[in-house]
Specification:
It comes from Vagococcus xieshaowenii. Helices cover 72% and strands 0% of the residues. The protein is mainly alpha-helical and 183 residues long. It has two domains: 44 residues, Arc Repressor Mutant, subunit A (Orthogonal Bundle); 132 residues, Tetracycline Repressor, domain 2 (Orthogonal Bundle), CATH 1.10.357.10. The longest helix has 27 residues. The chain is elongated and about 60 Å long.
Length: 183
């Protein structure tokens, strides 16, 4: 069976989300893909190279539609932002694997590390833009720093168990808009 980088990324993503950096091994990956380990080594020399390449691809896909989000109605922007954060929750968990890669190995792939850094900065820029628009449209309080809003979103998203549940997303939205106090 001929495998592609995308096949390897998909299987790696699953293993990383199950057990993190240490759980991903070429032995498990070859078993999941029903290929030999040498077949994997033709694509990637090391697990770290694989993770960096996969994260570069993940961030590219993740960032593709962000420019289209800006300029929506306030509640639409909030819905879009919540859904983007739900999608980012997995990407964020995957990014943790990059930090497990030792310094010397990361230095072997400066282009990939730079691309990941730029992608993260681009994501932060779009988030700031969306939050600033939300502040202009009075969706968010102006006096709350953007970083706090982002952290609140990230923590709220981790409470959502069923990402397809409109009800759970609505609860998060209500908490964001109204807090937990009675009004």
């Amino acid at each position: 069976m001929k495998i592609t980088d995308e096949d390897i990324y998909r299987a790696s993503r699953e293993l990383l989300l199950i057990g993190g950096y240490d759980y991903l091994t070429f032995a498990k990956l070859s078993q999941n893909l029903d290929v030999t380990r040498p077949a994997l080594y033709k694509h990637f020399q090391t697990k770290d190279e694989l993770i960096l390449s996969m994260m570069e691809a993940e961030m590219t896909v993740f960032l593709e539609d962000l420019p289209e989000i800006a300029g929506n109605q306030p509640t639409d922007s909030l819905d879009i932002l919540l859904r983007k954060f739900l999608a980012f929750a997995d990407v964020h968990r995957l990014l943790e694997s990059v930090y497990r890669i030792d310094y010397d190995t990361r230095r072997q792939f400066p282009e990939k590390m730079l691309k990941l850094k730029k992608a993260h900065e681009q994501f932060k820029h779009y988030l700031d833009q969306l939050i600033d628009e939300g502040k202009e449209q009075q969706v968010f309080e102006r006096n709350i720093p953007n970083e706090w809003i982002v952290n609140f979103f990230m923590n709220a998203i981790h409470m959502v168990e069923d990402r397809d549940s409109c009800e759970e997303i609505e609860i998060v939205k209500q908490l964001l808009m109204n807090g937990v106090g009675k009004r």
